[in-house]
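Student: Please help interpret what follows.
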Amino acid sequence: MIFLLGLFKKRQFWYIVLVIFLITLTYRLTYTNEQLFNRIERPILAVFSPISDFFSSVVNYFAGKVTSIKDIFYLKSQNEILKKKVDELSSYQKIYYELKTENEKLRRMLDLKERSYDYNLEAAEVIGRDPSNWFNILIIDKGTNSGVSKNMAVISEDGLVGYTVDVGNNWAKVLLIIDNRSSISAMIQRTRDNGVIKGSVAPAPPGYLKMVYLPMDASVVNGDVVISSGLGGIVPKGIIIGKVEEVKKESDNLMKFAIVKPAVDFNKLEYVFVIKNFSYTGRE
């Protein structure tokens, strides 16, 4: 009894009773009178509809933002996947290009070997250059175990490279024809004038050759092809050495000399052939 008296004195209790009464009254009235419900519904909807629409638009806005954020993270992950695929394809492309380039070089070498029927050729790969003389000596991966010995001519598909000067079991050093210590018997292919090809000695610029001991009456002109003459027994006759770029008289006016551009690009050599022996020195 005391509990009920205390409950009646509390304001919250009467608020609850009032709400229950209003709900019951509204239900009874709208249940028995549909028109009355419609009259009550319209003003309520008119008041609360804009508020409802506002909150609905706010909810939809943030829901859209959440979706957009999800899309951003998804697109970012897809972009990372695509980047990895592009990197993989780029790597495969580089490998393909390298294999294609190497295959073309090997095909040219094979073609040279098939055409050089009178030479006994040993294919070799350039594995280094002598650090003491970077541009003038290269090292190949073939030596005495492959039948390579000192003073053997070395060629590429473009022309004469040089000759071996030091040989080990599985390696050999090749002195390039552009070295100033190199000396090769040569001739002008068109006129048959003989001379000697020396390395980069004055006035030949670095990387060029000087052909000396040309007769004064030699009709050598720019663009003439220089080949090996076969004299000396190291380099067989007819190997292309380069082309004449300039012809001048020696200071004593007794001989001519020519500046020759080598046929071989020595900075890009990867594979060469060592001529181990040759049976016919008359070819050109």
